[in-house]
Automatic annotation (TrEMBL):
The lineage of its organism: Bacteria, Pseudomonadati, Pseudomonadota, Alphaproteobacteria, Hyphomicrobiales. It comes from Mesorhizobium marinum. SUPFAM superfamilies: Winged helix' DNA-binding domain (SSF46785). It comes from the Bacteria. Keywords: DNA-binding, Transcription, Transcription regulation. This is Winged helix-turn-helix transcriptional regulator. Residues 11-109 form the HTH hxlR-type domain.
Amino acid sequence: MKMPDDSWCGCPIRFSAAEIGDRWKLLILRDLAFKKASRFRDFAREEGISTNILTRKLGELAKAGIIEIEIDDGRPNRPSYRLTAKGRGLIPALIELIEWAAKWDAATEVTPQAIAHLRKTWARLS
């Protein structure tokens, strides 16, 4: 994402948008955080994302230090992915986005109880 000038330097929203600010990255993060997806095929099947875009987005998230790629010696062609500490730090923000969507999007099917459960689970894990 190219910003118009240097006046955005140091802006936390700019940084966040550059790191995670597209739909595929947010959906990958959601799947890692809440759906326990960890393999390439999990993301491809869940989202219907093309393999070239998925490969690029996973690489961008890894380069940003948000996810890490684990290679199994027995299966080098089947890496798994997991959130790093930096990625886990995004979970509260993802929960806030879920809550925001539940409030403002009539099509969002998330109950207040489900959001409370996410918050409680995250608090226990962090």
